[in-house]
Fold this sequence. Notes:
Blueprint (H helix, E strand, L loop, with lengths): L1 H5 L4 H20 L5 H25 L5 H34 L1 E5 L14 E5 L1 H4 L9 E6 L2 E12 L4 E5 L2 E4 L2 E2 L17 E4 L4 E5 L11 H4 L2 E2 L3 E10 L5 E2 L8
Antiparallel strand pairs: 1-2, 2-11, 3-4, 3-11, 4-9, 5-6, 5-8, 6-7, 9-10, 11-12
Helix pairs in contact: 2-3, 2-4, 3-4
Amino acid sequence: MEEKINKEPTIIKTLFSFLLALGFITFGYILSLEYPNISKALFVLGFAGFLITAFYLVVTLTTWSYKIQEKVKEYFLLWFEIAYTLLVISVIALTIRFFVVQPFLIKGESMEPNLQNNNYIIINEISYKLGFSPQRGDIIVFKFPRDPRENYIKRVIGLPGEKIQIKDKKIYTNGRELKENYIPYLNQVSEEGDQEWNIGKDEYFVVGDNRLPGGSSDSRSWGLLPRKDIIGKAWFVFWPPQDIKIIPHPQYNS
């Protein structure tokens, strides 16, 4: 008896059903340009829910037979359960997407040979938001300081307070050569002449793994990266299948 009462439609549930239907239609419209297939599915779901809810209200005000009213109520409760479940799943997914982890598509060859063009990776956002600082060797995704609309992916080489030097095609941190065993080249830095940076508070020096001439646009050409522009740390590659792996953290001599 209690289970039956809990499944009975209420005025609040009916009004909420209309709001859910309108919400799906609205989001379908918002996503129509960027995600047309998802948009169509949301439109169909929203309009179907709106019609089912409206028909249910009409039937409850008529003298139609008990069987018809029960069947319409059954369809209404089924729609409501599906819509509410999708809402809960969407809230959880969006919370995870914007505050914990998110996918990222690598475009370009700046992280070769360790990460490839068109690799899909998962970014861990929560660690840095909880106060953990980026470490040397972390591969990070960040907003490009010169154009925040673009996201870049590079490796952290220099930390706040350090002095970075490039001379004789090698990188030095505080005067000590940095051994990067993940770079398979004899000469680790493309020929650009000697350079030097003093990293300030809340700044980082980031470089792509592709050190061939023109292989990466990074701190060597546009300067230091502010901490506020960092989105998260690259966690693992999940596509394509042959490249699936946890992204390792290198060991350094300093």
